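QUALITY CONTROL LOG
STEP: pairwise intake check
CHECKER ROLE: data steward
CRITERIA: each record must contain a sequence immediately followed by its structure tokens, with no blank fields

ENTRY 1 OF 2
RESULT FIELD BELOW
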Amino acid sequence: MIMWPLAIVAGADMVIQKAIPGHHTNDFKPVYTAVAAFWRNEPVYTANLNSVDPHYLYPPGGTLLLAPIGLLDESTGRLVFLFLNLAAAVLAVYLLLRMFGYSWRSPLAPVGYFALFLSEALVNTLTFGNVNGLFFLAEVVFLTLLLGRRDTAAGIVLGVTIAIKPILAPLLLLPAVRRQWSTVALAVAVPVLATAVAWPLAADPGHYFVHNLPYSLRIRDYYNSSVSGFGVYYDVPAPAILLVRGLLALAVMVSLWLLYRYYREQELFFVTTTAGVLLTAEFALSSLGQQYYSMFLFPFLFTIVVRNSLLRNWPAWLAIFAFYSYETWHLFRWPAFGRNLEYSRTTFGWALLLIVVCCVLVDRYLAARREGRLAHGIDPVHLAPDLPTRDHSHGWAANDPRSGCTTGVDSELEAAHSRSRHVE
């Protein structure tokens, strides 16, 4: 009763006050210009990459897949694109609820939507006219199909996203370590096939590889929250940047090894947590990381309801607030301090999250080794239960050993609790 009105009003405010009016940063315009040129068989990759305006950086296969947008006029196309991304994000959260064993009737549902509508990731995705909402849905669908061992469909979904932009490409590691090789093969084949089909239809497909792709791999000093982008913006010496990236990469490798070694049989926990670590590492350590990429960490954040979650500590949520909050930290009384705080919070948030995950896992490992129980895993002996109460009719059942989730409440206690409610 409390959270649904808050979630609905927050969503309405976000769409009406922020998304529809738009912003001076317009990610949709270069996409529309490119696909319109594609339909006219004109060159697509003609932007001046020395400017700080949004550029069209999608490969020829991505242009082909996005081409239907060009059938509409620009203003109509933007609104359609906006509401498609909004609907995709809303559906993605619903599927996440199902994945973790909850229904829309659970109190987790309005809490999840409230957090989504207040996040910088969704607000700026819709306000700028970006494709991240659709990619968020594709990520959740991919994880769902992967857990369900529907390898062909999972590979096609991931492959389509890679054909447009490879932001979810690190997730290829998940089917690889789970030996779902057909998923890996299809995820690689789909973008290759899309490029092959688009090549004879486009006016300048080769220009992408000599003009746009090298630019995409460069470290730019604006709108870039990666460690490298932060370092370049603040003129940090290159060896210091390399050292920080190396230490974070080491933490990531330790985390991934411990997750694979001790949690791979708990499929839901392993897949969602590993996906979060891989994507956070990509955003922090690659050449480009933008704050609204954090939308793809939502499946990882949902693991807070699982009893062996790595996020049940305050430093993790300090990090999450740093990169998820839409609030700005430009301070009227201390402008220089506020500017530095605003421009660095996403970088430090991603880095802190990677450090927290590594520290929790290493602490669990050392405690288990000290107590002589490594053979039984590294989970602490005493864990809080899953929260809130699960809906056993949806998603991965609470006591399914593949999920890594147990309620700790047997059927007799549940029956007794039900009888007590009836008496009351």
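ENTRY 2 OF 2
RESULT FIELD BELOW
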Amino acid sequence: MSLLLLLVLIGGGMFGSGVVAHDYGDALSKSILFFEGQRSGVLPQDQKMSWRADSGLSDGWTYNTDLTGGYYDAGDNVKFGFPMAFTTTMLAWSVVEFGENMPPNELRNALVAIRWATDYLLKTVSQPNRIFVQVGDPSIDHNCWERPEDMDTARTVYAVDAPNPASDVAGETAAALAAASIAFRSSDPGYSETLLRNAVKAFQFADSYRGAYSDNANIKDGACPYYCDFGGYQDELLWGAAWLRRATQDDSFLNYIQSNGKTLGADDNINEFGWDNKHAGLNVLVSKEVLEGNMYSLASYRASAESFLCTLIPESPSSQSHIDYSPGGLIYRPGGSNLQHATSISFLQLVYANYLSRTSQSLTCGNLYVTPQTLRQQAKRQVDYILGSNPLGLSYMVGYSNYFPQRIHHRGSSLPSIKDHPQFIACKEGSFYFNSSSPNPNVLVGAVVGGPGQDDAFVDDRADFRRTEPTTYINAPFVGVLAYFVGNPN
């Protein structure tokens, strides 16, 4: 048993029970700072995560194009376009819904984090009838334990050319650029317009050549099994259209959502939300117009959103149908990286609660009357659990509180910084650090790891990537969630 886990188990008695007041402002600042640790490309002068340096500077050279920048999705050194675009959408949605709750400096930092992604996403759709969906061969990359600054693995570029389909990645890219265009509208209207123009272009590609990007033979070996489209491409088409409707108020996108809802399976898998399945988020997003009294033709989206939200209320008749909770109260879904569900679902609860509040409405789950405040309390329990109000008394956000995972599954964090150890560390030489029981030398501040199991148990083990690996799409919705509680801490 590691020293950290022993301390956590001891500390659980002190910190795991009772009410703990969390510093949501500190957590928000750190959740945004995390994205600096995931940066690829040339780092700016004001980079605060100083143990990182430039990386991936030749990305795109095989296509004679610049594909530098963007984010590494998790603890590896691959740039996967599908989850990166979803991350961007969620960061932008966080600002759109909750930016007014952020302190001005953190709002600026959030916009910087979004722009680091959107600048890259613009590059991926810069060529006619082509979208770049990934940089880096994951099989080779995952066979190494190597700092991004030392990468000597193949930086294979994966592109989809029309008429081959990439509806999922292109649709999510459209959503990301459209959502970001709203986030930047007041601070940088010129950039906002560029984002929106390219969002329309990405959506046209997605809709014109329908199908999953991972069905392409030249893409499948790179995308799968990591970020295959497991849930179908149809939801990304509706999601992209919904964000374009929100950004433009153009009725053509409204008509698209209305007329394509059934054929694209708007009523399918309504209890899922994440990088692969957008249904629950789509329904919440579209419900805004329904709740505001404008669009009764979209009432089915509201019904689906509320059906999902009712499953999250323990007292609701439908609570046991889709969602499980750990004994300590954490939302639990089977599969790895569980905290992605807790952060994204909490985000949707808070967004919907705001929509209800602004329109003076509530939610009915069977014979149960659910107020916006009930949804907010549900979300707050998830946030507080992640920050340390759990049976182990452990913060699952690195660098927050005195107890947090020290041995996260992350190459750059676990290997000595190039600033401290400028000598090259080759592919297999990093295994020494991977297998070490020592804490990571570089603290990836703000990273939210995959989290505990269904029994609330957690072992601080670098090899257990399902529990100790952070991802950008765990953090992105958490930025919005924390921003809400900065403005409404009680």
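INTAKE CHECK: passed for both entries
DESCRIPTIVE NOTE, ENTRY 2: The radius of gyration is 21 Å.
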